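agent: user wants the structure for Acetate--CoA ligase from Acidianus brierleyi. delegating to structure tool.
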Amino acid sequence: MSQQENLPFDEEYYQPPYKAVYRESIENAEKFWRKMSEELEWFYPYEKVLDETNAPFYRWFSGGRINISYNALDRNLKSRGNKIAIYWENEKGENIGLTYSQLYNEVNRFAKVLQDLGIKKGDRAVIYLPLMPELPISMLALARLGAIHSIVFSGFSVQALIDRINDAKAKMVITTTHTMRRNKRVELKGIVDQAVEQTPSVENVLVIKRNEEPVMKKKDVLYQDLAKRTGYKKVEVEETSSTDPLFILYTSGTTGKPKGIFHLHGGYGIWTYLTTKWVFDLRDNDVFFNTADIGWITGHSYIVYGPLQAGATVLMYEGVPDYPNPDRWWELVEKYNVTVFYTSPTAIRSLMKYGEDWIKNHDLSTLRILGSVGEPINPEAWRWYYKNIGNSSLPIVDTWWQTETGGIMISATPGLGNYMLKPSANGLPLPGVDADVFTEEGIPTNPREKGYIVIKRPWPGMLAGVWNDPDRYIKTYWSKFQGVYYPGDYAVKDEDGFFFILGRADEVLKIAGHRIGTREIEDILISHPAVAESAVIGIPDPVRGETAVAAVVLKQGYTPSSQLRKELEDYVKKTLGSIVIFGGIYFVSKLPKTRSGKIMRRLVRSVISGQTLGDVSTLEDETSVDELKKVIEEFS
Ligand code: WTA
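agent: tool returned. relaying tokens verbatim.
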């Protein structure tokens, strides 16, 4: 790649403090974390920086008392009360700005309503809201009470909602009537109505009214009614312990059942606060625009908890980037003087196709740092972003991390003076992150040799476990290699210690940056009356990164047709969520299987992507592969 020559960042920019801070964090970890933790406010000091007695259930800052909502709001009231915490705008250009003190008031009022409805410390509430101000408000209100939120991305549908509510045994669901996408109404409450018929733990559905009258069901209560009665009163903050759960966020793994990743007030709080400063270098006059949805970890950590604890101003946009026009984001950057901009490779690729004229009419000169997250960024997208949005002069922080890691793990760190970029590289590990690349045998790879990325010691932002399933936590993350955390990504490391993350090493897809398991899609497909069996795999897509492809065996009495194909696609979207985008559904009479009856997804993938088949010695019936090949040929 040739963009190296154009990069203004060189070894001379790669200055301390990054190197010194990193070394300190590894060689003198205990002292380092003690110092770092002082930047936040504690109700009561902790005894131990890291409690390893029940490893791998590591607990950070145990014995201490801290509340993340307090650190985001109360702590900032004193010095930043009149500063904007959140700007919100929608597709139509309607907007509001909430100062820290206004946000504090809203959060307290919301917390009072929750309290009056019986929500208390340790209770779970599922939030199913679009990117409206009440989303961060309700999160911060629940956290203030020590209750646990579990946000379900509004692109998920009924079944996904049911599974998550039931696994978390949520007492409450918080929702609204709808959101708008491309000026079309997207129903939300109707989906909750269907879901709560199958979720016995839910006592109340708290409905936030927008510009239409909600149709109320028997468990529904209207937020505005209660809030009016409550008024603005201060609610005492719960002095949660560092190791009390803050939220559960369900994410996809290799089985059909999503994992409830949960994070704690202390470690997650410190990690999101510090990484926000290290990576995005947020200072008091910055405006941070993160285009992610809060329903994913990127929004949890870098719209809400990191930036607000850091006292920054964030911009939330409820809408799509290309409506009403493909310059919607650039319009917002100009209007709000955005200084730090964070988005996904998929979004960049989807905007590239509209050309540069949409950018030229906007003054983007306030920008100083660009970020990328969610999937590996391809060189074309990187170059386009760098040249057209970054004016060939801004650093792009390509941040690698996961729901499980709580916050960014590998990236450039402008906040620590490390602007060093390399084409396609994510960068160097953040302080405290002891990363390496291992071979299948668990030994470090040679430079530039492909292997699995691993994290060799605990870090404060790490997941606390898998909700209701401690064994799965150990099995998924701590068993592939003894004593090290296994993220499930392929990577290489070069001779300078730069990491390049190459993609998932398991059955997890990234469709437009959204994480979804192939088994989850299979489970939904086979719940359709026409489907007997299915195998889902991912194939590369030029814009979305990946899409799902299914090989489907129909039940007797059903015949393949394009209509049925469409029906299956719609069914998956309606049941699981609109985030599932198919690159094809192929009907076959049988799937390739081993003699013991296991579906050989590897072979399905090889056939569909036109690769060589590899070892077929365990294949029971070779005609299954021939048939699949034929079906694909006919189709294309
Ligand atoms: C992938 C999103 C390459 C990776 C924050 C990881 C990335 C998964 C990057 C986690 C990046 C995320 N470069 N790959 N900058 N960022 N990934 O839990 O495969 O939705 O394991 O968290 O996204 O997805 P999740």
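agent: one observation worth passing along. Confidence is low (pLDDT under 50) at residues 1-14.
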